[in-house]
Amino acid sequence: MRNTQLSRAVRAALVGALLVSAAAHGQATAPEKKTTDLDNVVVTARSGVEARTKAETSYSITTIDEDRLRMQAPTSVTEAVKSVPGFWVESSGGEASGNIRARGIPVDGYGSVTLLEDGIPVQHDPALGYLNADQAFRLDETIERVEVVRGGPSSVFYSNAPAGAINFIPRKVGDTAEGLVKYTVGNYSLNRLDFWYGTPIGGGWKLAFGGFWRVDDGVRRPQFHADDGGQLRATLSKDLEHGDISFDVKHLDDKVALYLGIPMRTNANGDIRPVHGFNGNYGTLAGPETEHARMPQGDGGVYDFDNAEGTHVKRTQVTFKFDHDLGDDWKLAESMRYNTTDTQRNGMFPNALQSATSFLAQDAKRLALIPGATALQFRYVDNPSQIYDTANQNGNGLIVTGGLRGVTLPVDEFINDTRVLRKFDVGSQTHDVTLGYYHANFEQDFSRYSSTVLTDARDNARLVDLVGVDAAGNVRGSLTDHGFYRYGYEWENASGKSKTNAFYVSDEWQVTPELRIDGGVRWEKVNVEGYTEGKKTVNLGGTPAAAQVLTGNGQQVHYDQSFDKTGWTLGANWQFSPRQGLFGRWTSAFRLPNLSTYITNPTATPLLQTMDLAEAGWKYSDRFMDLYATAFYTKYDNVSFTNNVFDRNGNTSTPQTGFASTKTYGLELEGTLYPSHWFDVQFNATLQDPKYKGLSYTDVVANAPVLRDYDGNQLIRVPKVSYRIVPGVNLLDGRLRLQMSYEHEGKRFVDTANSVVLPSYHVVSASARYDATPALSLFLYADNLTNSLGLTEGNPRAGEIASADAGANTFIARPLLGRSFRAAAMYRF
Q1: How far is residue 29's CA from residue 500's CA, in Å, rounded to a whole number?
Q2: What is the pTM of this model?
Q3: Residue 169 CA: distances (Å) to CA of 13, 18, 321, 666, 816
Q4: Cα gap 173→335, rounded to integer Å
Q5: CA 819 to chain centroid
Q6: What share of the chain is helix, strand, coil (3-state, %, to 5)?
Q7: What's the CA gap between 319 and 576, in Å, rounded?
Q8: What is the CA radius of gyration of the chain?
Q9: What are the φ and ψ backbone dihedral angles of 305, each rounded to 5 degrees?
Q10: How deeply is 338 buried, as exposed, middle or buried, from its count of CB atoms within 10 A (0-12, 13-18, 19+)?
Q11: Tell me: the pLDDT tens digits for 555-609?
Q12: Fewest CB within 10 angstroms: 432, 555, 700, 798, which?
C-alpha cells in the first residue's frame, strides 16, 4: 500500500499542485530529483479550461506538499506558511490568532491575505476583529498540501486578498481504498490522534472521512488544559460523465489557549530578558487564580468568565462543489459553502506593568475612600496576612494590571462562487476566458465584557488586593474586590450583517508558444448594516471596584453603509527555455470596509484602502537546483490606525487614530539545492525596505493639539531581512530523513514611532522521519532547540502608534514559545 500511496501522491502533485520552493523535492522517499519543478501544475488564484504549469504562471506561488508538511509539522495555520518568502508570520500566541504581514501591507491577523480550503474562503472576511480565519480552521491529516500565492491575481478571484491567498487542499480518494492513522505525543502533555480513510463505495461514488482529537497542557502551562478538542469531516464525491460533484461536511469543536505578553526587562548591557522570577520560555501570567471568575455586570447579572475556554470555536461547515461541461466547449464551476460558527474568546490580557512603589504612589489619592487608613498596601488574595514586598517580591517588585476579557461572536455565513469558462481559438492564438460571480452574506453578533485585576509578576500570577491600613498595620478596607480593581471597564453589545456581490472576468491569452499574457478585472460591492448599543456607567455599590461599571443604556445606534470598487491585474510570462522563464505583473487591488469597522463604532468614517502591487520574477529549474527570485513593490494608501491605549489611572482604553500610506521595495528568494542524491538544502529569504509615507496624527498634550509625524519610519513588526535555511539528508535509501531549520528575523519595531525595538533573533529546530516499514513511519520533532527568546510583539495595549513603553526598563512583550519535543507514529493502510 506504500507504493500505492506514493503513486497517488505523485499523480496528485502533477495534476493538482504547484511544488514551488522545491523543498517539496526533498522527499526522503525520492532521493533523486527526477522532474523539473517548472512542470508542476498551478490551481490557486487562476481559473481556466486548461491546466497551467509553474513554467506558464505569471505570479509568485509556493506549494508545500504532504511530505514537506509532515517534516515541518506546523502546530498552527500560521506556522504552516513560515517557509513562504514575503510573509512575516507570528504564531507565538498559540494554535490560533496568528498574524501575517505580507509584502509591506501593515495589517494584523489575516487582514491582507485570505485563507482558503479547497479553493473556497474559510471565512469571507478573514479579519473580522477577534475572529481571524485561522481561529475557524485547523490543520490535520485530511489536508494533503498547501498552496500560497503572493500578490498576483488573488485580488481578482477572491475578496479581501490584496496580498495573496493561502489554499489548504484536502485529500482526494483514489481508485482503491486507503487510509492512515497518526498518533503524536509531546513533552507538554500532548496527545493527538489524526486519521483519514477514503474508499470507492460503488456507482462511481467515493467516500472519505477523517479528523483529529487533541489535548495538551500547553508549552506555556497555565495549570489547566491549554488546548482541548478536535474536528471530524466526511466527503462524498463522484466523477460524472461531463464533470464531477462533491459534498463535504466538517464539524469543529476545539479550545486553544491564547498566549499573551509576559513581563520583560532590559539589562544593563542592553539584553532583553524576562523579569526576575519569571520563566520567559515557558511562563504565562494566566493561571489557576485567574482561570475562573464570576464578575458582576451593570445590569445586575453575573458574567461567568472561564479562561480554560481560551478561544473556543464550535463550527459546522457544509461545502458543495459542482463542475459540469455545458457543451459547445462551455464549462460551469460552482462552489458553495455555508457555516455556522460560535466563538467564545477569553483571555487574561496584561494591560500594564509597573513597580508596586509607583502604583501605590499613583493611587495614594484614593486613600480617603477607606476611613481610618493611613497607607496603602498590597496583600495576597489567597493569603491576606502576606504583605507584598514592594521592593523585591518575586525578585522584581512589579504589579500587573490585567484584563479578564471575554468576547462572544456567533456568525452565520453563506458563500457562493459561480464561474463560466471557455477556451477560444483565434487563428494561431488562444484565449482561456472565465466569467465569475461571487456572493457572500453573513450575520454576526458581538458582545464583550472585561474587568481589571491586579496580580504579581510571576508564572501563573497570583491575585493581589490593594488595601488600606492604619498606623498599626491593621487592614481597614480595600480598594479591590478579591483582586478585581474595576469591574466592567469594557462593555459592548452589537449586531450586524454584511452582503457582498462581485463580478469578475479573466483572460489567459496565449500569444506564442513561449509568451502568455493574462489579465483580470473585479468589481465588488459590500453593504454593512446593524446596530451598536450605547453605554453608560453605573455604581453597583459595596466596593470601589464596582463604582464605575460600564453597561448598556438601551439605545441603539444604527448604521447602513455601502461601498464598491473595481480592481484589476495584468501579467505576462515568457518561458524562453524549458528550464527557465521570466514573468511580470501589475495589480491594482483594494480592501473594502467591513463589519468590524462599525460593530463597536457605528459612527466610524472609514477610508477605502487601495493598493498598487508590482512583481517581476525569474524562475529556473534543473537536476541540481530550483531557484525563484522575485522583486516586488507595494504601495498601500489610506491605511487607518486605531488602537486602544490602556490608561490605568482612569481604567479606560483611549483610542488613538492615524492615517498613512506605505511603500515597500523588496526581493524574495526561494528554492532548493541538490548537491547529491542524499543531501539537499531548502531556503527562502526576504529583503525589503518597508516604510510609512505621510503617517501623521494629532495628539492632545496639555489640552493643546500636537502633530505626530512618522514619515519614513519602518513598518511595525516587519523586518527588513529575514531568511530560513533547511539542510537535510536522506539516508538508508531514503528511509531516513534528517533535517534542521535555521530561521533569522531582523530588527523590528513595536510602534509606528519606532520608539520601541524588537531585536533580531534566530530559531533553530529539527525533525526526522524513519520509514520502519513500507506502512509505518516514525517522526521526531524538536522546536526552538536553543530556547530563543525572540520577541514577536510588544504590548499592543501600550499603543502601536506611539508606545507608552518607550524608554521603559520593564515592559510587556511576547517571546517565542520555549523548546518542545514531539514524537509521532503514522500507519498507512
Answers
A1: 46
A2: 0.91
A3: 11, 11, 14, 29, 28
A4: 19
A5: 21
A6: 10, 60, 30
A7: 41
A8: 27
A9: -90, 125
A10: middle
A11: 999 999 999 999 999 999 999 998 899 999 999 999 998 898 888 889 887 778 8
A12: 700
